[in-house]
Write a structure and sequence with these properties.
There is one protein chain. With about 350 residues, the chain is of the alpha+beta class. The protein has two domains: about 1-40; about 45-339, Lipocalin. Helices cover about 15% and strands about 55% of the residues. A ten-stranded antiparallel barrel has the order 1-2-6-7-8-9-10-12-13-14. It is globular and about 65 Å long.
């Protein structure tokens, strides 16, 4: 009887501890959801808008040797989409426009930029492409390489010396903040990282194009991982006629570990240096209740493959959006009804 009581008491205590644990977890989750709600949910209809946009995204690269250049560019780089925006979040859904007269590049392309706690500028990108148009600066016709694949993943981080007194989200969403200065310029320093690769079933160069390069230019696969430091300048301008603009410039230098696989064998280039330059521009024009915003960014990476072969990677994106502010029209109708 005593053993049964001890066992029941033991089970009761374990059940009680389990219930307390579950309640604590529920309270913790509820607190997190409440914080998430305050972070992402904007309850002021004045800040909401619906938008249509066209965008441009590309991951292209080139290999050069003594003035000869082979450039590889994806097709169907443009898209159309719909979305909505407020002060705290922008959600845009787009689909690529495909030219029926051109081969299709299959892609996954995710890029984003944010500013955290007023001083931390962060940019992240994840890309995967298959199918490239090969173009040359010598007498060789352009061809589509459906077997050519590439992928890039990386980040840029800049710590600003001053609080960044504007919001990219507000500019992209066609919203203004009276606290913004007419002119704001700040500098900073930070770091960047990148993993990059491309591969093909055959060599990167056609038989004719390979005559303009050395033997090490017949690459079947490349992969590299790099890290470095950067410096940057970020600026914001309030322009006449309800226009705002932002410009940033971030050069960087680092080192990169690379491996190249040729048709016969492989090697690791001895030159580790990696150079980069990021540039971005944003312009917004408020028409009340409409707005137009244009954003563009470009990241250029350059390194040596050795044997007088140089490699450049260019990551670009642009977006032109036309939005309609939902709250503005409702407010004007309400005012008309009152008077």
């Amino acid at each position: 009887m005593l053993k049964q009581y001890s066992l029941a008491n033991f089970l009761y205590r374990r059940l009680l501890l389990l219930l307390v644990s579950l309640c604590s977890s529920f309270i913790s989750v509820a607190q997190n959801l409440e914080g998430l709600d305050s972070l992402l949910v904007d309850r002021d209809i004045e800040n909401y808008s619906i938008r249509i946009f066209t965008n441009y995204k590309v991951n292209k690269f080139s290999v050069e040797n003594s003035g000869s250049r082979s450039k590889f560019t994806p097709n169907n780089r443009h898209g159309l989409g719909l979305g909505f925006a407020n002060k705290k979040i922008i959600i845009d859904l787009a689909f690529n426009l495909r030219n029926p007269n051109k081969e299709t590049t299959r892609r996954f392309d995710l890029q984003g930029t944010t500013i955290l706690k007023n001083r931390h500028f962060i940019n992240i990108y994840v890309q995967s492409y298959k199918g490239y148009q090969a173009k040359y600066n010598f007498d060789e016709p352009s061809t589509f390489r459906g077997d050519l694949r590439s992928g890039s993943f990386g980040f840029n981080y800049l710590y600003s010396l001053d609080n960044i007194e504007f919001s990219f989200a507000l500019l992209k969403a066609g919203l203004s903040d009276e606290k913004h200065k007419d002119v704001f310029i700040t500098a900073g320093h930070g770091a960047f990282g990148i993993f990059d690769y491309f591969s093909s079933d055959a060599t990167l160069l056609t038989e004719t194009a390979s005559l303009y390069f050395n033997e090490e230019g017949n690459i079947k696969r490349y992969q590299g991982a790099g890290i470095g430091v950067l410096a940057g300048v970020i600026s914001f301008f309030r322009l006449p006629e309800d226009m705002t603009a932002t410009v940033s410039l971030m050069p960087g230098i680092g080192i990169m570990s690379k491996k190249l696989t040729l048709e016969n064998g492989s090697y690791k280039p001895s030159q580790p240096m990696l150079y980069k330059l990021d540039f971005s521009l944003g312009v917004a024009y408020n028409l009340k209740p409409f707005y137009v915003s244009l954003t563009y960014s470009n990241g250029l990476y350059s390194t040596s493959f050795g044997n007088d072969n140089n490699y450049r990677l260019n990551i670009s994106k642009a977006k032109l959006a036309l939005g309609y502010k939902l709250g503005r029209n409702r407010k004007s109708k309400l005012k008309q009804s009152l008077f």
